[in-house]
Design goal:
alpha+beta, 17 helices, six-stranded antiparallel sheet, single chain, 12 strands
Length: 420
C-alpha cells in the first residue's frame, strides 16, 4: 500500500491481495505491522510527556525506573530520555546473547549490560527505545500501549491501529511473508512494543504523518510541534526521525521491518509532501521507492542491469560494454547502472564459466567505481578464473589500497604468491 499526502489531500495506490486465500484486495484500511516506524509514536509520546511537565527531555532515564534497575553510566554522564530517542544512549541495537519480552527481562538485560562508551555517538538501538517506552510507562503508572492509545491514537482518530490484535484489527490485517513462508499474526511482546509493536493501516499512518509534520490541524498540535522542534539548536535533529538532504529534497524519514512486514514513512520539507508505504513482504525494503515517489531524482534500487543494456552487450560479444552504456545514456539521460547489479551480473557469468565475459563486465564496473574495493575484488576473482595471474594480483592490490582490512584480497594475494 502506498499513501501520499500533501496540500492537495490524500491519494492511495495498492498492489496485491490482503488475503490470497479469499482474493481480498489490499486497500488503505488493510492493517500491517509497521515495525520500527513505531518509534515515531514513542517519540510523540515522549514529547507529550514533556509538554505536560511529567518529565524532561534531559532527565536521566534512571530517575524514571525502579531502584532495582541500573542503567549503565560511563563517568558521570547518565543516559537521558532524549539520548534514548535519538539513539545516542550507548546501548546496542539488541542485547548480545539475551532476549527480552516482558519489561522485567528488559530491565535485567539493561542492568547487566556493560559498556565503556559514554552517551553521545549515534548507534541505532531497539533496546534504547524499548527502555524509553517502558520508562515513560513507569512514570505515568500505566502500560505503554495504553498510554500511546490514549494520548496519540485516540486523539488523532487512528481507529485502525493498535498493539493488541483485537478481532477487529485481525479481520483487517494481512499476514506477513518471509520469502514464500507466511508468518502467523501475533502481537509483539510487551517490552518490544515501543520499538516496533504497532499494527496500523495506510489511512491511519497518513493521519499520523500529516499531524507529525503539521499538514493539518489536530488535537496534538502542541505535542507534534515539540517533536518537530530541533534539538539543542541542531537543525537536522528531531526526536526519532532520520534526515537526508539530497537531490533538492530535505527528507525526514523512518523505515521498519519485522515479522514479514516492511514499512517506510517520509516527508519532504521542501515540497510539503509525505508518503507512507506498507508491505507484507519481509524480503525487500522500500526506502528507495518511497524517496523516488517524493522526488524522481532518487533512483530506484536496481536488482539487475536493464535488459536493453544486457542485450546490447551480449550482441557485441561483450566487446562493447562501455559503448553500450554511453549509447543508452545518450538516448536517455536518466539511464543508470548500479554497482551492485553489475557486480551480480559479473558473478553470474563466472558461475556459468564465462570468465572472459565476466572480466569485460567487471572491468567496466571497476572503471565506473574506481573507489570501490568490492568492484576490484570481484574483478580479481574474474581474472583468476581467466588464468591471468598478473591482472588478478593487480586487482587485489588495488582492493587493499582502497580497504587495507579486506580479508579476501589478502588471502588471494597470499595464495597467488605461494603458487608462483
Amino acid at each position: 500500500m502506498v499513501g501520499i499526502i500533501d496540500g492537495q489531500g490524500r491519494r492511495y495506490y495498492s498492489y496485491g491481495q490482503a488475503d490470497p486465500r479469499t482474493g481480498r484486495p489490499a486497500d488503505e484500511h488493510t492493517v500491517f505491522g509497521i515495525a520500527s516506524v513505531t518509534k515515531l509514536l514513542t517519540a510523540a509520546l515522549l514529547a507529550d510527556v514533556v509538554i505536560k511537565g511529567e518529565a524532561g527531555l534531559d532527565e536521566p532515564v534512571q530517575q524514571l525506573l525502579p531502584p532495582s534497575v541500573q542503567v549503565p553510566v560511563v563517568g558521570n554522564q547518565p543516559v537521558r530520555l532524549v539520548d534514548l530517542s535519538l539513539h545516542l544512549s550507548g546501548l546496542p541495537r539488541e542485547m548480545p546473547g539475551t532476549d527480552y519480552h516482558d519489561v522485567q527481562s528488559l530491565y535485567r538485560a539493561v542492568s547487566a549490560y556493560r559498556t565503556a562508551r559514554a552517551p553521545g555517538r549515534f548507534e541505532y538501538s531497539n533496546v534504547g527505545v524499548s527502555l524509553l517506552g517502558s520508562a515513560l510507562a513507569q512514570r505515568a503508572g500505566a502500560p505503554y500501549d495504553r498510554l500511546v492509545t490514549d494520548r496519540i491514537l485516540r486523539p488523532l482518530g487512528m481507529n485502525e491501529s493498535g498493539f493488541a490484535l483485537t478481532p477487529a484489527l485481525r479481520a483487517q490485517a494481512t499476514a506477513g511473508w518471509v520469502g514464500t513462508e507466511v508468518q502467523p499474526l501475533a502481537s509483539v511482546p510487551e517490552a518490544r512494543m515501543p520499538s516496533g509493536g504497532l499494527y496500523s493501516s495506510a489511512s491511519d499512518m497518513l493521519t499520523f504523518l500529516g499531524a507529525a509534520v503539521g499538514l493539518a490541524p489536530t488535537p496534538l498540535d502542541t505535542t507534534m510541534a515539540k517533536v518537530r522542534q530541533p534539538y539543542a539548536d541542531q537543525p537536522n535533529v528531531r526526536l526519532a526521525w532520520g534526515f537526508a538532504r539530497r537531490n533538492g529534497s530535505a527528507v525526514w524519514q523512518h523505515a521498519g521491518r519485522i515479522g514479514g512486514y516492511n514499512s517506510f514513512v517520509a516527508f519532504d520539507a521542501n515540497t510539503a509532501r509525505g508518503v507512507v508505504l506498507l508491505s507484507n513482504s519481509w524480503t525487500t525494503a522500500m526506502t528507495d521507492l518511497g524517496l523516488h515517489i517524493l522526488n524522481r531524482q532518487f533512483k530506484l534500487q536496481q536488482f539487475a542491469p536493464p535488459a536493453t543494456f544486457v542485450q546490447m552487450v551480449e550482441t557485441s560479444d561483450f566487446r562493447q560494454v562501455a559503448a553500450a552504456y554511453h549509447a543508452l545514456r545518450h538516448r536517455d539521460p536518466d539511464f543508470y547502472l548500479e554497482e551492485g547489479s553489475v557486480n551480480e551480473w559479473g558473478g553470474s557469468l563466472l558461475g556459468q564459466h564465462r570468465a572472459r565475459q565476466a572480466v569485460e563486465v567487471l572491468q567496466f564496473n571497476a572503471g565506473q567505481h574506481p573507489k570501490s574495493a568490492n568492484a576490484f575484488d570481484s574483478l580479481g576473482l574474474a581474472f583468476e578464473a581467466l588464468g591471468d595471474r598478473v591482472q588478478a594480483i593487480a586487482a587485489y592490490r588495488k582492493v587493499l589500497e582502497l580497504d587495507p582490512k579486506a580479508g579476501n584480497a589478502a588471502r588471494r594475494l597470499a595464495a597467488l604468491a605461494a603458487s608462483k
